[in-house]
Amino acid sequence: MKNITTLTDAIAEHIHDGDTVALEGFTHLIPFAAGHEIIRQQRRDLRLVRMTPDVIYDQMIGAGCARGLIFSWGGNPGVGSLHRFREAVDVGYPHPLAIEEHSHAGMSVRYTAGASGLPFGTMRGYLGTDITKHTATIRTIECPFTGEPLAAVAALNPDVGIIHAQQADKDGNVGFWGIQGVQKEAILASTRAIVTVEEVVDSFDSRVRVVLPSWVLSAVAVVPRGAHPSYTHGYYDRDNAYYRAWDEISRDRATFADWVRTHILETRDFADHLAMLDSSMAQV
Amino acid sequence: MKNITTLTDAIAEHIHDGDTVALEGFTHLIPFAAGHEIIRQQRRDLRLVRMTPDVIYDQMIGAGCARGLIFSWGGNPGVGSLHRFREAVDVGYPHPLAIEEHSHAGMSVRYTAGASGLPFGTMRGYLGTDITKHTATIRTIECPFTGEPLAAVAALNPDVGIIHAQQADKDGNVGFWGIQGVQKEAILASTRAIVTVEEVVDSFDSRVRVVLPSWVLSAVAVVPRGAHPSYTHGYYDRDNAYYRAWDEISRDRATFADWVRTHILETRDFADHLAMLDSSMAQV
Amino acid sequence: MTAEAINTTTATDYTTDEMMTIIASRDLNNGDVVFVGIGIPSTAANLARRTHAPDVVLIYESGTIDTKPTRAPLSIGDGELAETAVAVVSVPEIFAYWLQAGRIDVGFLGAAQLDRHGNLNTTVIGDYDHPRVRLPGAGGAPEIAIGAGRTSIVLRQSTRTFVDKLDYVTTVGHHHGSGSRAALGVRGSGPSIVITDIGILRPDPVTDELTLMSLHPGRTVEEAIAATGWPLKVASELTTTQAPSELELTALREVSAR
Amino acid sequence: MTAEAINTTTATDYTTDEMMTIIASRDLNNGDVVFVGIGIPSTAANLARRTHAPDVVLIYESGTIDTKPTRAPLSIGDGELAETAVAVVSVPEIFAYWLQAGRIDVGFLGAAQLDRHGNLNTTVIGDYDHPRVRLPGAGGAPEIAIGAGRTSIVLRQSTRTFVDKLDYVTTVGHHHGSGSRAALGVRGSGPSIVITDIGILRPDPVTDELTLMSLHPGRTVEEAIAATGWPLKVASELTTTQAPSELELTALREVSAR
User: Fold this and answer.
1) What is the ipTM score, two decimals?
2) What is the pLDDT at residue D3?
3) pLDDT tens-digit map of D50-100
4) Would strands A174-176 and D199-203 be described as parallel, antiparallel, or unpaired?
5) Across C8-53, where does the E strand assignment appear?
6) How many of the other CB atoms lie within 10 Å of CB of C34?
7) Predicted pLDDT of residue D142
């Protein structure tokens, strides 16, 4: 249990201003609680990494945590644009945001290379596009056997990888199931790793499909509903109303700032935040 | 169920003289029944691929099925040498055997590249060894970002991949669990794929961890104990006595030939072979 | 009304989205392995599975293989996709072992902008460094476009979307046309169909230029030309798209219901 | 006899294999992540876990991570390894995400031939194309040797095994010595210990040449020199290996019992 701690302590200890930080979770298991704690502790100048920077990164970017973003698809799925992300890119508010764009396949190859201890990964990708013109971490490589040109992408090795999972066992091993995304690779590619879990169990649910041993995890923190408003398979569903409501909240600077202050900065922790949402008529 | 057939028909239809054929299974789930059926149907000039050519390939090589072998470790685990393999390499009996040697890591990268539709894979490997001097499918590649030299290995794409698994469902999807080896990659890297299973079930056991959908499998055949003398997790243990006895049987050409004739060529199928073993005092 | 009557009866009361979805569905063959995104593609693939193509295989980029949701999912990572899938794999695996390896027959794509050769922009309107509108970016599209056997593009037609020149090429279609796509060394044959609210376009077999092949009931060539930012090629034997049947529409509404 | 007495009492009746296994076990530190093969390495790692290093993490190349078998397994792919593992992953993953990524502290290696710099041959005796003895080949060794933080080599010493020149370099140790290993661009510090039936060798800090540091009880320098195919360097302060304690031997026999 030596790696089991609180989320407050985990973020305080392992995330420093200027770090490259990846919060992963593909629709499922998005680590919202950890993102909020980073906002709450007011980390700055982070280079954020995420295949699908959605509402969680809109919140972090809008709250001023980020100076850079490495990503492959930035939107509010099923709803529309990310207004805080767009305002950072378009007019540099609250800070200019240096973006590095890839495709989903490219990001997954970059994480895989990082998790594998290789400096680059190879793929059939990007050919005929403008992406290579704006992204320095894509080069062309020739197959040494066939001579055919392929895309090489630089390995991604964040300082910190953060995910949410269903369960930890008493030894601090972590298990999850359902849509698994790129979470394992993000954790294994990162120098330090933080995992929030729904609960600690004596032994894993039989549905667990991916297990990360305790000794590759810097910190594990129990945060029930820690992926809300995304979902945790077997625990709770996606809060689609929250995602829809986010469009209105995030559209205006002042409304957004007020929301962040009352819902994150002035709450003690994620449980407090959730209690506020639950008790609010408007939910968000 | 359109892909569910008999092993006899699967081998007859999908394996041709001269094919490159990979039978995979890492200690666990070695597809002995399929190997025997290839011997029984007297396929010739196969280029065999397998990370650990153990007793199953000793039998196939000794029976004259092979003209080539791509591998990374050839021995009878825990017992000693493979006498039929060694005699083929040392003196070309019953046929000369062209060998192509890699390491385990190299073979797994080759299969992975093959399964991924890439012409090569990259790894940190082989440096400072003589392996590269004798194996044409290893080259040096430079990282286009860091300039560091790495090993590139050519993709492996066998004509046919063959594995054994615990279960198929009624739709012909295949599921297995326990030590999974390189089986998934071997199947996905191959043009055609044959799977033997212990049984067909209504729905998979909850222990199933790897599932291959029916539409990537050319043929699925039910062969109970089809991995004997290796083991099938949850079904039967490894027959260590068989592996030990193999040393004596395979040491002498005539003893071997007699064993192959009585135990494989003159048996109808693997069930018949197993019945003979079970009723025999000496077991093998 | 008998089942047969439903099957053959032409519906009259349907939305443009329903029309586009039904055409996308018809375009799939039984047994096709389809890489689907959320929205019309997902609904279309599920509709095909419930109607003329029961053995269509659905793969979502979230890593769910051979899913059989009872309803078209709301998001690409819906729990139901995992629960009804034959296999759930990681995102790196879905792109490497399944898409890149050439196991996908049809990929669906959408875009903010499309050019006459079916190249797509989902990244930015205006200058990349000083965008007029920042869009979500590439997602899975660049590799779907060169990994799938062919692609099906669903996109409403207007001079804003059908442009003479893309502001940014996110995803390659037929490149510069006339076989130049193949010369890039990419796989697959590229966009085989573009389904709009006005009609259906397909690439010319020689020049690869998108050509209007069919008009939806009640739409005109003039409308199509006016909604296209380049001089639109029109097939000499322009047909009228078959309107949705009652059967198709009923099945679609069942699939879409939430 | 009290537990303490067992702990400190020197055993007298033990086999050479037991001695070698116990030394290999002592060489592991608590918390080490160890990549183990079958035989002495596996037994040694399990012994360490049962004695002085309860938090040693065992990884087998068959893909079982953090296994806790009750007995040393018979084969690298034993079912018990999967059943007692924290995680079971594929062979490609174990080599890429775990070994190559640098997550292993100690790798065990054996060989048919070893040279003075700890390079190893497990491929062939004689000419490659016309071998005198064909050996199993590389297996996991080449990448264990350059992926693990350091390696521990267990090998009986004789002029057949300790040779002046390898017939074939399957696995790199300290290469040509004097820091040339690092110049290859490989990871890890290479062989830190060679455990034989006669004594213990370690690389010289400057030349990387294997040097006899310790003799097992009852063995002599002359024996060691006679069993080495090159002029063996002997440490100026040669020690005697501590004989197995009763505690170690009892634990070892429990681990080995089948």
Assistant:
1) 0.96
2) 47
3) 999 999 999 999 999 999 888 777 776 778 888 899 999 999 999 999 999
4) unpaired
5) 33-36
6) 26
7) 97
Which residue has 């490609």 as its token pair? D92
Gap from B124 CA to chain A (nearest CA, Å): 7
| Coil vs helix vs strand at C92 | helix
Q: How far apart are CA D128 and CA B134, in angstroms?
A: 9
The answer to whether B163 touches B219, Cβ cutoff 8 Å, is no
What is the average pLDDT across C1-24? 77
Say which CATH architecture domain B4-102+157-282 belongs to: 3-Layer(aba) Sandwich (3.40)
Residue percentage of chain C with pLDDT more than 90 = 83
Bridge pairing between strands C191-195 and C199-203: antiparallel
The answer to whether the CB atoms of C137 and A209 lie below 8 A apart is: no
**pLDDT for position C40:** 86
CB neighbour list of residue A248: distance below 8 Å, 6 or more residues apart: A255
Longest dimension (CA), chain D: 60
Residue with tokens 């059908």: C162
Residue C130 has pLDDT above 70, yes or no: yes
pLDDT tens digits for range A27-80: 999 999 999 999 999 999 999 999 999 999 999 999 999 999 999 999 998 899
Phi and psi, residue B5, nearest 5°: -150, -170
C239 Cβ contact partners less than 8 Å away, ≥ 6 residues apart:
C213, C214, C215
Helix axes A270-279, A32-40, angle to 10 degrees: 110
| CB within 8 Å of A232: residues ≥ 6 apart | A28, A29, A164, A166, A198, A225, A226
Domain boundaries, chain A: 4-102+157-282
Q: Domain locations in chain D?
A: 16-257
* Cα B244 to Cα B242: distance, rounded to the nearest angstrom: 5
Q: How far is D95 from chain A (nearest CA, A)?
A: 8
Alpha helices in B190-269 (DSSP H): 240-251, 253-260
With bands split at pLDDT 50, 70 and 90, how would you rate the model's confidence at A282?
A: low
Instruction: Classify residue A34 as exposed, middle or buried by CB count within 10 Å of its CB (0-12, 13-18, 19+).
Output: buried
Which amino acid appears at position A90 of this protein? D
Cβ contacts of C87 on chain B, cutoff 8 Å: 173, 211-213
Residue for token pair 């615990």 = B166
Chains C and D touch (3+ CB pairs under 8 A): no
C158-182 pLDDT tens trace: 999 999 999 999 999 999 999 999 9
Instruction: Tell me how far the alpha carbon of residue D19 is from its chain's centroid.
Output: 13
Angle at CA of residue C153, ends C148 and C156, nearest 5°: 165
| Under 8 Å between Cβ of B67 and D89 | no
Residue A254 pLDDT > 50 = yes
In the three-class reduction of DSSP (H, G, I as helix; E, B as strand; rest coil), residue B62 is classed as helix
| pLDDT 10s digits, A105-139 | 999 999 999 999 999 999 999 989 999 999 999 99
Contact A182 C91 (CB under 8 A): yes
Residue B138 half-sphere exposure toward CB, CA atoms < 13 A: 24
How many Cβ atoms from other residues are within 10 Å of residue A18's Cβ? 13
Q: Report the gap between the CA of D68 and the closest CA in chain A (Å).
A: 13
Query: What H or E segment, with its residue span, contains residue A255?
Result: helix A253-260
Other CB atoms within a 10 A radius of the CB of residue D80 amount to: 15
Q: Considering only alpha carbons, which residue of chain C is nearest residue A131?
A: C170
Query: CA quadruple C127, C133, C134, C140: dihedral positive or negative?
Result: negative
Q: Which residues of D are known to be catalytic? A: 61
Helices and strands (DSSP H and E) totals, chain C: 9, 14
Q: What percent of chain B has pLDDT over 90?
A: 95
Length of chain A: 284
Closest CA to B65 of B87, B43, B93: B43
Question: Which CATH number is correct for C16-257, 3.60.15.10, 3.40.1080.10, 3.20.20.370, 3.40.50.620?
Answer: 3.40.1080.10
